[in-house]
Design goal:
- By secondary structure, the chain is mainly alpha-helical.
- The chain contains three helices and two strands; from the N terminus they run ααββα.
- The protein has helices spanning about 1-60, 65-95, 120-140, and strands at about 100, 105-110.
- Strands 1-2 form a two-stranded antiparallel ribbon.
- A hairpin with a 6-residue loop joins strand 1 and strand 2 (about 105-110).
- Helix 2 (about 65-95) crosses helix 3.
- The chain is elongated.
- The N and C termini lie far apart (about 55 Å).
Length: about 140
C-alpha cells in the first residue's frame, strides 16, 4: 500500500511539472507572437509619422484645409497606435511576470510589493495592468 501512495505522489509531482512546462511553453509562444505584432505596429507608427511629416513639408504654413484635417486625423491614428503598442508591451512584460512602474518606468517583478526606485505600490499597479489587458483582450475579441 505504501508503494502505491509513493507512486501517486510521484505521478502528481510529474503532472505538476508537465503542467508548468506546458504553461511556460505557451507563454513563450505568446511572447514571440506579441513581439512580432509589436514590430509591425512600430513600423506602422513610423509610416504614420513619415506621412505626417511629408504633408507638413508640402504645406508648412498649414494653409490648406485638407492638410489641417489630415494632420488631425493622423495625430489620432498615431495616438491610437501608440496606445496599442503600450498594451502589447505590457502584455509581454506580464507574460514574463514583470510590470513597468508607471511612476518611474522601472521594470519590476510582479512579486515585488513596492518599486525599489520610487516606492510605487506594485500590487495596485498590477491590478490596473491586469484590468487593462483584460479590456484589450475583450475589445480584440469583439472586432
Amino acid at each position: 500500500m505504501e508503494g502505491v501512495v509513493i507512486s501517486m505522489r510521484f505521478l502528481n509531482r510529474m503532472k505538476g511539472t508537465i503542467d508548468t512546462a506546458t504553461r511556460k511553453s505557451h507563454d513563450v509562444l505568446e511572447i514571440n507572437k506579441v513581439n512580432s505584432q509589436i514590430k509591425k505596429k512600430e513600423l506602422q507608427v513610423e509610416r504614420l509619422y513619415q506621412e505626417l511629416g511629408e504633408k507638413v513639408f508640402k504645406d508648412p504654413l498649414l494653409e490648406n484645409l485638407e492638410t489641417q484635417n489630415f494632420i488631425e486625423f493622423q495625430v489620432k491614428n498615431i495616438q491610437f497606435a501608440l496606445n496599442e503598442l503600450q498594451v502589447m508591451k505590457s502584455k509581454v512584460l506580464y507574460l514574463k511576470n514583470h510590470v513597468q512602474c508607471d511612476s518611474c518606468e522601472k521594470i519590476v517583478s510582479i512579486d515585488t510589493k513596492f518599486c525599489p526606485d520610487c516606492g510605487r505600490n506594485i500590487g495596485d499597479l498590477l491590478k490596473s495592468v491586469t484590468k487593462m489587458l483584460a479590456l484589450a483582450e475583450h475589445n480584440k475579441n469583439e472586432t
